[in-house]
Amino acid sequence: MDFKLIDEDVVVEGDGYEGKISSLQPELQDLQERCFDMSLKYADAEAELANSSF
Question: Of 42, 33, 29, which is closest to residue 21 (Cα–Cα)?
């Protein structure tokens, strides 16, 4: 079975996922922001460690 990714604004009528997609979008955005923040913190910690070892 082939699955195709669709644009988030495209909704197939009657697929039953309209509400699910829209309810998950804020959660996805929150997770992306948290991941980005953690990446910045990790980079800062690495930079501090690199500076302290010299």
Answer: 29
Residue 6 sits at φ, ψ, to 5 deg, of -120, 155
Distance CA 32, CA 28 (A): 6
Q: What is the pLDDT of residue 1?
A: 46
* Segment 15-46, tens digit of pLDDT: 677 788 888 999 999 999 999 999 999 999 99
> In this structure, what are the phi and psi dihedrals at residue 41, rounded to the nearest 5 degrees?
-65, -40
CA atoms within 13 A on the CB side of 40: 6
Residue 45 identity? A
